Amino acid sequence: MSEQDTTTEEHHLRLRHLRPSDYPDIKHIMDAVYPDLGGAWTRKQFSAQISRFAEGQICIEDNGRVVAGAISMIVDYDRYGDRHKYDDIIGNGYLTNHDPNGDVLYGVDIFVDPEYRGIRLGRRLYDARKELCRSLNLRAIVAGGRMPGYREHAEAMKPEEYIDRVRRRELYDPILSFQFANDFHVRRVITAYLPEDQDSGAFATLLQWDNIFYENERTSLIGGRKSTVRVGTVQWQMRRVTNFEDLMSNIEFFVDAMAGYNCDFILFPELFNAPLLAQFNQEDPAEAMRGLAQYTTEIADAMSRMAVSYNINIIAGSMPVYEDNALYNVAYLCRRDGTMDNHFKLHATPDERFYWGVQGGDALKAFDTDVGRIGILVCYDVEFPEACRLLADQGMEILFVPFWTDTKNAYLRVRRCAQARAIENECYVAITGSVGNLPRVENIEIQYSQAAVFSPSDFAFPHDGIVSESTPNTEMTLVVDLDMDKLTQLRAEGSVQNARDRRLDLYRVQWLDD
């Protein structure tokens, strides 16, 4: 067949499972690919492979003719270990060691008709194997890999150096380079894996691709990890209230509404209880804020009861806390199991310090919830990338940022930084603030907000990294579903991998008390 005959315009490619009737095509390909390694499987071996594990035998046909194939089996890998021999593990081609209850998909062989090289059929077969590995919940794909280019360099370097140089693209190997390009890593060098492989000097690479979605134990029908987390945010209208009961009624209204949408989380803004400030002396804003702090424990306890009653995790924006003669700005996490945690805002703004005497907290941690690990940073905190980096290092997947801003430029500082944190740390970030105004309340008169939820920036996510956003300066809710599996896949296979590629040999972020 000429090169002109194999142009993609004339192809009709189809990925499917192998059938016993495909043997003539398989024999033709393998005899052409392995003239020095014994050629094709026998018909009996080929039939046994299909009989034992039909799902693992995959091919690509073109206009009815098989032009590429991949042979696989499942093994209990601990039975064989890293020093196994090829013929031993594959049962001399009959796959007698195939174990449906094993934990690893073992790559027995993969081959492409020489006339079809250059159109990436091998990559399609590798992708099909990965999908099979995921669907069967196997922890990895393992294979022994030839390195036929090593023969030219055997006198000058050891196999380990050759492999490293191929990995760094200083050398090219027709098989090993392809396997690196398909996300396999080399576990070790095997000697005498395939003794007749003279081009590889009888060496082989033990290759592995890890299934990032592997579940070590069967997922529980109740209480298992959720792949989709629903988040609701409240863009809160600042309005005068006549008493504490009015405020709690407004809070419960939104909790009830978000619970009705089966949200896992509801996020309130920073200082959402500020309407109660009107009860205190406005000639002394610092005294008024300390007066407001008298309500904080009562509000937090009431919202904790709501979290249990409505079966929703509540991030209670933030409220002032006055203890040991110091004023803090504190966010509360009220879990739906009845437990509570808090985050003391680390970075008080110049305005908070000047008018109210707010001090920054001195602790930071990620919080476990029934649907994943989260972080909370209050407003100004998100403008310091180190804080979010430390939370990400603790396994945080969703960051909640309640804020209060009075102008659009102040809001945009929070928004832009929140988007940056989502990209830098490969996580979701939800932000919300308050709108409206509070006449005759000193230093908290006007509000500007546009609630939003941000994602990392890659193909699996919205093109602009914005999952959803509210209408600016209007009281409303925002409800979004967050796909947590996309984060898992991004961190292992993304176009860029910020967490993995950080140069920890050059720099790091460390909490000083650690």
TrEMBL record:
Gene3D superfamilies: 3.40.630.30, Carbon-nitrogen hydrolase. InterPro entries: Acyl_CoA_acyltransferase (IPR016181), C-N_Hydrolase (IPR003010), C-N_Hydrolase_sf (IPR036526), GNAT_dom (IPR000182), UPF0012_CS (IPR001110). Residues 13-169 form the N-acetyltransferase domain. Keywords: Transferase. GO terms for molecular function: acyltransferase activity, transferring groups other than amino-acyl groups. SUPFAM superfamilies: Acyl-CoA N-acyltransferases (Nat), Carbon-nitrogen hydrolase. The keyword Glycosyltransferase does not apply. It holds the Pfam family CN_hydrolase. Residues 229-484 form the CN hydrolase domain. Belongs to the carbon-nitrogen hydrolase superfamily. NIT1/NIT2 family. This is GNAT family N-acetyltransferase.
